[in-house]
Amino acid sequence: QWEDMRVLETATLQHHRSMNPCPLYDEFTGTLFLFFITVLGRTPEAYQIVTGQNVTRLCCVTSTDQGLSWSTATDLTQQVIGGAIKDWATFALGPGHGIQLRSGRLLVPAYSYHIDCKECFGQLCKTTPHSFAFYSDDHGQGWRFGEFIPNLQTGECQLVSVDEEDGSNVLYCNARSPLGFRVQALSTDDGAVFHGGQLVQRLVEPPHGCHGSVIGFPAPFVYVPAAPRAPPAEPEEGCPTPGHHGHARGITSARGDPAANPSPAPFFQAPTWVLYSHPTSSMSRVNMGVHLSTFPRDVESWTEPWVIYEGPSAYSDLAYMELPYNEASISGGPAVAFACLYENGTRSPYEQISFSMFSLHDVLQNIPLTATVSRRDGSPPRHGKRGRRGCLVS
């Protein structure tokens, strides 16, 4: 049940408007950060992009009592961005959520319109948008920013820490793009540097793009290196495992407690799967859907969408939860559930904000088993009946 709305009266700077909230929780210290930008007066983003006159500030408030009370706003612009801001026409955060790595590093997704040249070819300013991350290794005492995704145009973004089957870890960034498809990029040094971005042609963008959300969670199996030529275990009936298949070669899956499945080979943490929410049409902001990837570094690993809301819809943010043990859970442990907060309406995507909850079992039951071609009219894909159930919407 939702509590009454509270206005964060301290999350502001005088004569500025607050935008692009990005909450982040430090599990080591119990501190809740709320990052946001403030923009002078009514200055639009487009004006800053065209003129190169940046009037945006990086700000933060914190809470040590789970959001009951908040500190006054701190303007971090000079301390964190410093002189580099002269090359940024404007910048923004997320929006959505930040993440914390096992090392304790805090990460806030962001993007900037970098000034490529001023007064060139008849334009006041030529800029290119690039995604990147702010990060802290001392629990928020000091912040730095990493390098831009170098090649493709990228904007609003979110991050996931991805564990892989060989025991390695990469930082995954999924970003909005004006190129007709989402862009994803990987970092092998926890966000200081991103490798070149890749277009994800299974994840379409409407004209001019739209914000989307990604959340990572442990795969619902305990993976064990298999003996040579051992066939992979079959998924449970009614619970297909969509997505990438080639990466499963040479491993088997075991359910429940690893101690109950003795093996001479060592166990390690299950790899990370990623869920993504976004309007599913390439024509307009309609039909909010979720896609699943079981091998995020592969751009071809994304499933077709399960549409959770048919109609106009836009920005969204996902959260992952582990519910108490129940017999219906896939792995025999805590049941995995997701929450999605998203804009929607009947005539416009911006009439209301809805909250939906659904389990991983719901996702696996409702995601199409076979790829389908995106419908040009923006209507959701049609699929055969598989005993689907809807998500809870409030």
Automatic annotation (TrEMBL):
Gene Ontology MF annotations: exo-alpha-sialidase activity
Superkingdom of source: Eukaryota
Top-tier EC class: hydrolase
EC number: 3.2.1.18
Xref: InterPro entries: Sialidase, Sialidase_fam, Sialidase_sf
Comp. bias (Basic residues): 382-394
GO process terms (BP): ganglioside catabolic process; oligosaccharide catabolic process
Keywords: Carbohydrate metabolism, Glycosidase, Hydrolase, Lipid degradation, Lipid metabolism
Reactions listed under catalytic activity: Hydrolysis of alpha-(2->3)-, alpha-(2->6)-, alpha-(2->8)- glycosidic linkages of terminal sialic acid residues in oligosaccharides, glycoproteins, glycolipids, colominic acid and synthetic substrates
Segments of this protein annotated with the region Disordered: 232-259, 372-394
A GO CC term assigned to this protein in UniProt: cytoplasm
Domain Sialidase positions: 1-194
Keyword Cell cycle among UniProt keywords: no
Family: Belongs to the glycosyl hydrolase 33 family.
Name of the protein in its database record: exo-alpha-sialidase
Provenance organism: Grus americana (Whooping crane)
Gene: Neu4
